[in-house]
Amino acid sequence: MSVYEYTTSNTGLEYDVYDKPSVGKSIVLGIQNILTSFGGIVAVPLSIAGIAGLSIADTAYIVSAALLASGIASIMQSKGFGPKNYRVGIGLPTVMGTDFGFVPAANVVINSMGGGLPAYFGGAILGGILEFILSHFVEPLMKIFTPIVTGTVITLMGLSMMPVAFDWIGGGFGNPNYGDPIYLIIAVTVLLVVLFLNRYGKGMASSAAVLIGMVVGYIISIPFGLVDFSKVAEAYWFKLPEIGRFGIDFNIKYSIPFIAGYLVTIIETVGVMQTLGEVTYTELTGKDMAAGVRADALGSMVGPLLGSGPVQSFSQNVGLIPLTKCGSRFVAIITGILLIVISFCPKFATIISIMPECVLGGASIVMFGTVAVSGIKTISKVRYTNRNMLIVASALGIGLGVTFRPAILEQLPGVLSSLFSSGLSAGTVVALVLSAILKEEEESKPELE
After folding, report:
1. Transmembrane ranges (predicted)?
2. Residue 442 falls inside a structural domain
3. Which range among 145-159, 226-240, 380-394, 401-415 has the greatest average pLDDT?
4. Of 191, 48, 56, 212, which is closest to residue 120 (Cα–Cα)?
């Protein structure tokens, strides 16, 4: 049975997939989702703006476009539509956003190949079409996404994000005051608020623990001069995106640098979908996974048309589900609507964007850690044979190694460099390959303790 037919009961969630919290509570939880993902959504367009040498006005445009594209894609992925065997969107609570995995391809297309932003948008759309085609082959591939593989990938997904969380705690990578004790104090305060409210809070206080923790951290940051409200005063109250502002170049050569990125996206999206199934206690089929990949692909075609980049399902928001005890896709749809509204209001978006990174870092420890624990729970249900131990050890070892020392693979040829560009993708590839080539042990052989 699929997500469209089946959701378990007695899950421990306050709201299951098909439940609808009140609009007020959904908005609060939606804002919490946005706070969690906002940095990731706007970081990529800011990077692209730097690569392309854009003006402040053009940079503001592509940031708004990224918010709009993320909102539309989140609704598509969370709601799902189309006939049963060709659905687009997995129908689980998902937040979508622009993906850093495509930044290297953007640099090649914009600068090395000299195509500029029109080539970036055109190449991304053509790559999205390829991903849409490949989505039809996801279901057969699910045979190798066994529990030992998916559990390892989910664990690695959470663990590999910890360096990011700690960079945020330190004030952000490249910050001249990186590691300032003020940053650490604020992050620890946010962490403690989230922990105690989630553990001992009742009702909304428990569900919105992450949001409340971030608000507390935001307020504490103000007297320390970490929040610059002058940027808010300079921003517009309302502004519509200008569709087609830079143009689009559909030359096939510009799609080539994106191929590896989209292959990695498929692998990582399947991992996110598996994690969503775990934390929402939902049984997923290969068709569901294919529907999720198709939504990624369609979102990656719509995004560049709006002036943004390719999108992907965000893993950080998955960690909110066990913490908030809310697996409602209605909340994710509200999140998408809020993102669209924010894209039309640069002033409100700026208020969120000036939040100190140490605030997000304090909350991220629990969120990313929760994802890792979900993977450990999956692995714990598998027989720990010598084969399975080798798969887990190798995938985690290589995945975390690449996460800590990514420069070690920079000399690899283009496709391999892209395929192993992140610890998550590297560990996933290793888990899949070893699962395929290492034979299952005979039943008579003893399990490892």
Report:
1. 34-54, 60-76, 88-110, 116-137, 144-166, 178-197, 209-227, 254-273, 330-353, 359-376, 388-408, 414-438
2. no
3. 380-394
4. 48
Q: Alpha-carbon distance 211 to 217, whole Å? A: 10
User: Between the ranges 25-34, 65-74, 312-321, where is the mean pLDDT highest?
Assistant: 65-74
Question: Number of folded domains in the chain?
Answer: 1
What percent of the chain has a predicted confidence (pLDDT) above 70?
Answer: 84
Within a domain: 358: yes
In tens, the pLDDT along 78-118 reads 988 888 778 898 888 888 888 766 776 777 788 767 778 88
Distances (CA, A) of 153 to 260, 305, 320, 396, 437: 19, 32, 18, 8, 18
The number of beta carbons lying within 10 Å of the beta carbon of residue 410 is 8
**Average pLDDT estimate for 7-12:** 54
pTM of the model: 0.67
Domain that holds residue 354: 23-437
| SS3 label, residue 410 | coil
Query: Do the domain assignments include residue 3?
Result: no
Distances (CA, A) of 374 to 1, 280, 288: 22, 11, 20
H helices, E strands: number in the chain? 20, 2
Measured between alpha carbons, how far is residue 269 from residues 176, 272, 282, 406 in Å? 35, 5, 16, 21
The closest of 222, 234, 166 to 356, measured between CA atoms, is 222
CA-CA distance, 325 to 34, in Å (whole number)? 17
Strand 311-313, strand 96-98: pairing: antiparallel
Residue 444 is assigned to a structural domain of this protein: no
The answer to whether 216 and 35 have CB atoms below 8 angstroms apart is no
Question: Cα(367)–Cα(322) distance, rounded to whole angstroms?
Answer: 9
Q: Is the CB of residue 414 less than 8 Å from the CB of residue 107?
A: no
